[in-house]
Design brief:
- The chain is α/β, with parallel strands linked by helices.
- It has helices at 3-16, 35-41, 45-54, 84-96, 151-156, 177-193, 198-217, 224-238, and strands spanning 20-25, 28-32, 62-66, 77-78, 99-104, 112-127, 132-141, 147-149, 160-161, 168-170, 241-254.
- The strands form two sheets. Strands 5, 6, 7, 8, 9, 10 and 11 form a seven-stranded mixed beta sheet that branches. Strands 1-2-3-4 form a four-stranded mixed beta sheet, covered by helices on one side.
- Strand 1 (20-25) and strand 2 form a beta hairpin.
- Helix 7 (198-217) packs antiparallel against helix 8.
- The longest helix is centred in the last third of the chain and has 20 residues, at 198-217.
Length: 263
């Protein structure tokens, strides 16, 4: 996940959770959390316990985050996929925002159709010699099967609500939500087939080197059991793996203009 995508993801997350954003530019975001979010991601239980015991009004944390390593801001916290703060945010999403339903808010003078889109945020973990993660946001139209990558970035620019606007109506999905999930999974797998395999090749090369070194070290027959145990640990650690983990998703009813943003 690029720094830009992390930046857009964080902005959408804080906006969706009613936080006050004071500043957002060049990979820097300055935000005042809500009490609920502070309690969830800032690990300040003693502060909130003290506030409750004294009857005072607590002040949610003002968080400054940097996603662009070239940003010269000195008092911000560096954040990217895999950092403890990002893991806290992802964990919060998993626990509190697993699946939602939203409607695009448009002013329609006549009856306007909204089409169902399934949007899913997926964490892809590449395990091998090194571990890295990418956050993908992908949507699929449940009427015509069109895909949209970077869906969250587009949703961020769209006014949404849990209530449908006057003069708008929805149509039932032709593609089921389950089938939509499977299509998204297939799309992600197809994209992975075309990606650079250098990370996997390097991991396999290191696995072979470590196994050869292990076999040279254990040359006595009575060490065979221990050698096999360590060999299995090396294979388990360095065999390239790709794992998908769904963070959250939603069913979004959107206007026809979204079909023009297809992949």
């Amino acid at each position: 996940m690029t720094a830009f995508k992390v930046d857009q993801f964080l902005r959408a997350f804080f906006q969706a959770n009613d936080c006050i954003i004071y500043e957002h530019h060049d990979g820097f975001i300055d935000v005042r959390l809500t009490e609920k979010l502070d309690r969830a991601i800032m690990n300040r239980p003693f502060y909130w316990h003290y506030v409750k015991q004294t009857g005072r009004q607590g002040e949610p944390f003002r968080l400054k985050l940097i996603t662009n390593i070239d940003n010269e801001a000195k008092d911000g916290e560096w954040i990217h996929v895999g950092t403890p703060r990002m893991n806290e945010i992802v964990g919060y999403l998993e626990e509190n925002s697993r699946f939602i339903q939203q409607f695009e808010q448009i002013h329609a003078a006549k009856q306007t159709m909204l089409q169902p889109w399934l949007v899913v945020n997926v964490m892809i973990t590449f395990k091998g010699r090194q571990m890295r993660q990418e956050l993908k946001s992908i949507g699929v139209n449940l009427i015509n099967g069109l895909f949209l990558l970077n869906a969250m970035e587009n949703l961020e620019k769209t006014k949404l609500s849990s209530f449908i606007k006057e003069n708008c109506f929805t149509i039932s999905p032709i593609i089921s939500v389950t089938s939509g999930f499977l299509r998204i999974e297939r799309k992600l797998i197809d994209d992975l087939v075309d990606m650079d395999e250098h990370w996997a090749i390097e991991s396999i090369r290191q696995m072979k080197d470590e196994l050869l070194l292990l076999y040279h070290f254990y040359d006595a027959e009575n060490d065979r059991g221990k050698m096999m145990k360590e060999a299995l640990e090396i294979v388990e650690r360095l065999t390239p793996k790709i794992e998908f983990h769904v963070i959250n998703g939603g069913l979004f009813y959107l206007s026809e203009s979204w079909n023009r943003m297809k992949v």
